[in-house]
Amino acid sequence: MRNFITLLTDFGLNDHYVAxxxxxxxxxxxxxxxxxITHNIPKFNVKMASHIxxxxxxYFPKNTIHSVTVYPxxxxxxxxxxxxxxxxxxxxPDNGVLSLAAKDDHIEExxxxxxxxxxxxxxxxxxxxxxxxxxVPAFLACGVKPEEMGVPVDSHLIxxxxxxxxxxxxxxxxxxxxxxxxxxxxxxxxxxxxxxxISAGDILEVQIGxxxxxxxxxxxxxxIKGGEVGLxxxxxxxxxLCIFKDSAAKTISANIGDKVKVKKISEKLNREG
Length: 273
Fold this sequence. Notes:
Structural class: alpha+beta
Order of helices and strands: EHEHEEEHEHHHEEEEHEEEEHE
Strand content: 25-35%
Number of domains: 2
Shape: elongated
Radius of gyration: 21 Å
């Protein structure tokens, strides 16, 4: 059975870095299959990388090895980890980037990678993607056990992301991602909207920072009037702000980490939204 390795980085595709990762992996374990999640994470944005990993990891076959190199701390004494969960292995730095996905799949064991036999011989201070986070998943894909590469650790960094919550008739959350279409994705979920009896057609007051908008919740992008910002619940059941065929992020100047407050201000206009 062929093993899968996914790669998620902030390297972009204009340089040689991604090709080098793949070259190292295939040199060690040519029978594996490498799949790119994305290499377009904004530079050093651990929070966005953790979200992308979280929404993507579960759609891969069991035993897939997810390798992440979003690592502004490269060259420091930050640990390199293998996290074994119920269905997957995660490889990456101990900066919280693996924590959301790994926790979601139920962590079983965590190892600090210490065995240099499974790293590149000439270690750099600037390219641990090549030196650690490519060879380690390659050896794992070829059958080496995590305990052969590392030592168990009792703790690792958990990324601090504020959870959305319902309070005084409103839902408080934050912007966690802006996708390539300019859709502004929050950590407010469908269940919280339903908890306040909010559904498609309702008009919501959406406060981002100190600015308030009155936006309609609809079922799909094409239900939004041309040029207007609207709201949809996306494929991951998260509330997002969007414009049909345009960028909501540019229109409202939204940024990852901005606080969001949502409440219903009027009932459905009709049942078709």
